[in-house]
Automatic annotation (TrEMBL):
The chain crosses the membrane at residues 34-58, 88-106, 141-165, 185-205. It holds the Pfam family VTT_dom. It is found in: Cell membrane. Belongs to the TVP38/TMEM64 family. It comes from Vibrio eleionomae. Residues 62-177 form the VTT domain. One of its GO terms (cellular component) is plasma membrane. Residues 1-18 form the signal peptide. Keywords: Cell membrane, Membrane, Signal, Transmembrane, Transmembrane helix. PANTHER family: GOLGI APPARATUS MEMBRANE PROTEIN TVP38-RELATED. InterPro entries: TMEM64, VTT_dom. Its main location: membrane. This is TVP38/TMEM64 family membrane protein.
């Protein structure tokens, strides 16, 4: 197991170094520069861009920016898929670091936040991670770290993250693609999907609150 940890850290260091030593950091918000960069560098530039997206989102950068930029550079469908891949890799890297390497240090550092998240996530962890991912606000970084520290199954974490990431990723990639092609219908669809995403998030949150109240009532009855 120790050799796998060392190899993982080595690969992660290489990816971080490659991404940090790139002009992409200076131009990530410049969609035209990104599109030209990929056109000029080809496959190697694409790999570096995906590595950058993984490092950027793993460090807490807004995945919506990556989705919008990728949508402009690659189109709505390809931009969505590439952004999901990049963001998910970043999330898994952070999760793995928290679970394998820094678990005890993070538990000590986070204290009450760790205990609160553990109580929140211990029942139906898949649904809880999915709920956190669909919120338009919140810390992607802390969700990744706390999920790793609390020992959520990696497969459940990945599937919930993938499903939760998809609505906003597609919306922003579609918006970026619409800007790139000056397509009004794409912008309109992205706005409508944004409304649908907010309604879905509200429904998931309401179901979570109802299940919490039901559990509380059952607990009260069991104490009678």
């Amino acid at each position: 197991m120790k050799i796998f940890k060392i190899l993982f850290l080595l690969l992660l260091c290489i990816a971080v170094y490659a991404a940090s030593d790139s002009d992409i950091w200076q131009h990530i918000a410049d969609k035209n520069w990104i599109a030209n960069y990929v056109h000029q560098t080809g496959f190697s530039g694409l790999i570096l861009l995906l590595s950058f997206g993984a490092v950027f989102t793993a460090c807490g950068g807004p995945r919506q920016l990556i989705a919008f930029t990728f949508g402009f550079a690659f189109g709505s469908v390809s931009g969505t898929l590439l952004c999901l891949l990049s963001t998910l890799v970043g999330a898994v890297c952070t999760y793995t670091l928290a679970s394998w390497v820094f678990r005890q240090a993070l538990i000590k550092k986070m204290g009450r936040r760790y205990e609160k998240f553990k109580r929140f996530i211990e029942v139906q962890p898949f649904t809880k991670v999915l709920l956190l991912r669909t919120f338009p606000i919140g810390s992607n970084l802390f969700t990744n770290l706390l999920s790793g520290v609390t020992g959520i199954r990696l497969l459940s974490f990945m599937l919930a993250s993938l499903l939760g990431y998809f609505p906003q990723t597609f919306i922003f990639a579609l918006a970026g693609s619409g800007v790139g092609s000056a397509s009004e219908w794409q912008l309109i669809v992205s706005i409508l999907l944004g409304i649908v995403s907010m309604l879905l998030t509200h429904r998931l949150y309401r179901n979570y609150k109802q299940s919490t109240k039901s559990s509380d009532r059952l607990g009260d009855h069991s104490n009678v």
